[in-house]
Write a structure and sequence with these properties.
Ubiquitin-like (UB roll); alpha+beta; 2 domains
């Protein structure tokens, strides 16, 4: 039986470490099948379109078919009132009116809105005169950070025009598609109720 000396242990340990660290011989790589060759991504189809926003025609050229109305308004038409909050139709910050109906502009394609009348928060005021809803939101202090405010205002305009302001509970129900992370809901309800009275005068 061999003698276990310190020198023999170190020699055997060094040999084992060298064997582990030695590079393995290159293994042959399988040939890539023709159908596995990655093809270059095809460019998105583009089109030119004209959007009627706040009574003005905006000619947009080279718009990809996948571009949302929200992105077209903000990035191509320069109208940044509608906000990109969740970008999935949950918060309502991107709400605009299309032919008088409120929609989440992050969920609709820009190419689908050609020939329709689009209204954003920028189109509510008449010169220096604010819309009654805008005035009511200021008077009632119905906002804090302001991110949701344009969408809240657009939904409030639609809520009033649709006739859903008979009670506070009705206003809450028909404004429920717009979220406020600052929890200004009581003030928003008061602002909508005030604006409804002003519009009916």
């Amino acid at each position: 039986m061999p003698e276990h000396s310190r020198r023999n242990v170190l020699k055997s340990g060094g040999a084992a470490a060298a064997a582990v660290m030695a590079p393995l011989p290159d293994s042959p790589r399988p040939a890539t099948a023709p159908h596995q060759v990655q093809q270059a991504a095809r460019p998105e189809p583009v089109t030119d379109l004209t959007l009627e926003v706040n009574g003005k025609r905006h000619r947009l050229e080279g718009v990809e078919a996948r571009v949302t109305l929200l992105d077209a308004l903000r990035e191509r038409a320069g109208l940044t009132g509608a906000k990109k909050g969740c970008d999935r139709g949950e918060c309502g910050a991107c709400t605009v009116l299309v032919d008088g109906q409120r929609i989440k502009s992050c969920l609709t394609l820009a190419v689908m809105q050609e020939g329709r009348s689009i209204t954003t928060v920028e189109g509510l005021a008449h010169g220096d005169r604010l819309h009654p809803v805008q005035e009511a939101f200021i008077r009632r202090d119905a906002f804090q950070c302001g991110i949701c405010t344009p969408g809240q205002i657009m939904s409030a305009v639609a809520c009033i025009e649709e006739g859903h302001t008979g009670s506070e509970d009705e206003i809450r129900e028909w404004m429920s598609g717009n979220l406020c992370r600052c929890s200004c809901y009581p003030n928003i309800v008061d602002a909508v109720a005030d604006a409804a009275k002003a519009v009916r005068r």
